[in-house]
Write a structure and sequence with these properties.
Largest sheet: 6 strands, mixed
Number of helices: 4
Shape: globular
Number of strands: 8
Structural class: alpha+beta
Helix content: 25-40%
Oligomer: single chain
Radius of gyration: 15 Å
Strand content: 25-35%
Length: about 140
């Protein structure tokens, strides 16, 4: 299981024109993650930046397909919540983007808080978004 918690978005400080050289989750990196995962392996990406995760979901949707399908597919809500309930989510080109904190079903065993969480909470920025992807 690969976890990417709060990855650096490609734009700096919300300025769409500003590029960051520290952007990690490019299409090339996602394809490399796919290559190293075992079949059925998971990737969970968590962020407080919904705009960035929507963009990242589009990147995932645009990855080159093989005869067996997409390299990383979105895990369906019904697979993550066998108890009947589901988290709020939206569909971005076939990739499910969930709102809230990932739970044990998504591979997160503990909801931990950091120094940055405390800073964001003071600024009333408490929304979280995540996606769970699986190697086809």
């Amino acid at each position: 299981h690969v976890f990417a918690n709060f990855p650096e978005p490609p734009s700096v400080s919300g300025d769409e024109a500003a590029e960051s050289s520290f952007h990690m989750l490019s299409a090339d990196v996602l394809l490399e993650v796919h290559r190293t995962l075992r079949k059925g392996g998971l990737v969970t990406i968590l962020s407080d930046n919904g705009r960035y995760l929507r963009s990242l979901a589009s990147t995932v949707a645009g990855l080159p397909r093989s005869a067996s399908g997409p390299p990383l597919k979105s895990v369906a809500p019904k697979s993550l919540w066998s108890g009947g309930g589901t988290a709020k989510h939206e569909d971005v080109q076939g990739v499910h983007l969930y709102h809230g904190w990932p739970g044990q079903e998504s591979g997160h065993c503990v909801k931990a808080s950091s120094y940055f969480d405390a800073l964001w909470h003071q600024g009333s920025r408490t929304e979280r978004f995540y996606m769970v992807l699986q190697k086809s």
